Structures are given as structure tokens and as C-alpha cells.
Amino acid sequence: MVIWFGLNMLGREMGMPGGYALVFDLAAVAAFIWALAVVWRVWRKGRELDQEGR
């Protein structure tokens, strides 16, 4: 999130077109979705281990 914010500020300061902001936003959304998927997989694995009695 900090990197996304920094890239948006840098782009604004350098006068980059809005298309770059869109690319940064899409990359941030992709990273959040990936992180959510990883957390969900870890949560499911933990539940499986609890059910097995480990």
C-alpha cells in the first residue's frame, strides 16, 4: 500500500499521464487479491490441520 501511494505521488509530481495511475491502481488491486488468496489458503490449511487433530 505504501508503494502504491508513493508511486501515485511520484507520478503526480512528475506530471505523468493518468494512464500510469491506472496501471499503478490495477497492480495494487492485483496484489491485494493475491494476498487475500494466500491468506484464505493458509486459513483453510489451518482448519484442515485442526480437524485432523494436529
UniProtKB/TrEMBL annotation:
<protein>
    <submittedName>
        <fullName>Uncharacterized protein</fullName>
    </submittedName>
</protein>
<keyword id="KW-0812">Transmembrane</keyword>
<keyword id="KW-1133">Transmembrane helix</keyword>
<dbReference type="Pfam" id="PF17272">
    <property type="entry name" value="DUF5337"/>
</dbReference>
<dbReference type="InterPro" id="IPR020308">
    <property type="entry name" value="Uncharacterised_Ynq1"/>
</dbReference>
<keyword id="KW-0472">Membrane</keyword>
<feature type="transmembrane region" description="Helical">
    <location>
        <begin position="20"/>
        <end position="43"/>
    </location>
</feature>
